[in-house]
Amino acid sequence: MDIYTKMAYLKGMLDGMDFEDKKEKKLFAAMIDILDELVEAVDDLYEEQDELQEYVESIDADLEDAEELLDIIDEDLELVEDILGIETLEEEYCDMEDECDCESGCACGCDDYDEESEIIEVECPECGETVCFYDEMMDDEGEYDTVEILCPKCDAVVYTFESELIEDVEDEDIAF
Question: Do the Cβ atoms of 36 and 12 come closer than 8 Å?
Fold first, then answer.
């Protein structure tokens, strides 16, 4: 027996009972009306909860589809990188660090830099990526006339260093 049948049964009992005091009948009638309203409210909540459950299941299915698509895209990207011989930045960094046998001044991330050297951070004007390099990279006198620091994400030039400019500044005894 469902709750609506039970409510109908209570209403029938109230109508079939002979109360000596009419006040008692009014009291029971009011209580049954309140119970009836509560039954309707609970039924509405069940319906809304079922609708929400269906909606959540729909969102979950869409999310699973999106995750599968991202996995396929990631696999395709890895395949393209393998074909083109492109390594990710982390792989390049680790490979350079493992193979490094330099004494100082390299960009491989080894511990040959002085503790006093500063890290220069520059934001890429194209993609907004933060590019970091040691200031000692600019101290290699005479090796290169111009050094350009490129963004690892989009290959845009984020910093240009010209050795002649530094020599001119050093000659004028201007401190950085």
Answer: no
Place of tokens 């006040």: 23
Amino acid occupying residue 28: F
Query: Which H or E element spans position 3?
Result: helix 3-16
SS3 at position 141: coil
User: Rounded CA gap, 155 and 148, in Å?
Assistant: 11
pLDDT at 58: 96
Residue in this structure with the two tokens 């269906």, named with its chain if needed: 54
Q: What is the pLDDT of residues 135-155, one digit of tens each?
A: 666 655 555 667 778 888 888
Contacts of 144 (CB under 8 A, 6+ apart): 163
Helices (H), 19-127: 22-84, 89-99
Rounded to 5°, angle at Cα 170 from 167 and 171: 85
pLDDT digits (tens, 9 = 90+) for 57-79: 999 999 999 999 999 998 888 88
| Beta carbons of 7 and 32 less than 8 angstroms apart | yes
Enumerate the β-bridge partners of residue 121: 132
Domain ranges in the chain?
A: 3-83, 114-171
